[in-house]
Automatic annotation (TrEMBL):
The keyword Aminoacyl-tRNA synthetase does not apply. This is Probable thiopurine S-methyltransferase. PROSITE patterns: SAM_MT_TPMT (PS51585). InterPro entries: SAM-dependent_MTases_sf (IPR029063), TPMT (IPR008854). GO terms for molecular function: thiopurine S-methyltransferase activity. One of its GO terms (biological process) is methylation. The keyword Membrane does not apply.
Length: 131
């Protein structure tokens, strides 16, 4: 009830499908410097950015008190994950909640994407945030 949702997705068609499948009226506006597009619900409670995840800045809707990472961490190359976590950490309020979905599998049989994320990887990336 009262939540404002901010999301990031690289594919504009996925955002269009989200709004259409949920019968939500929306507008699309260009981001400054041609960085992407902003899809905004008519009631101004949903703001979905179509852009490079690494271009997110604090004025993209932060500070945030909750994150649901449903597929970003597992899509990012291992060497880029610390930068991703730093960006999100910079957007969080002190009392945040964070849900991250990951995958575990035998990397000798499949190497991704989506990429394997171990418990150790999660601790290394998020340990200082106490997630």
């Amino acid at each position: 009830m009262g939540h404002v949702i901010v999301g990031v997705e690289a594919a504009g068609t996925a955002l269009e499908e989200f709004f259409e499948e949920n019968s939500i009226k929306y507008t699309v506006s260009d981001l400054p410097d041609g960085a992407g597009s902003l899809f905004t619900s008519e009631d101004n409670r949903i703001h979905l950015y179509c852009c490079d995840l690494f271009s997110i800045k604090s004025d993209f809707g932060g500070p945030m008190n909750g994150v649901w990472d449903r597929g970003a961490l597992v899509a990012i190359n291992k060497q880029d994950r610390p930068r991703y976590v730093e960006i999100l950490a910079s957007l969080l309020t002190p009392d945040f909640c964070y849900l991250v979905e990951t995958l575990e599998y035998d990397e000798t049989k499949y190497c991704g994407p989506p990429f394997f994320v171990s418990d150790k990887d999660l601790n290394d990336l998020y340990g200082r945030l106490y997630i």
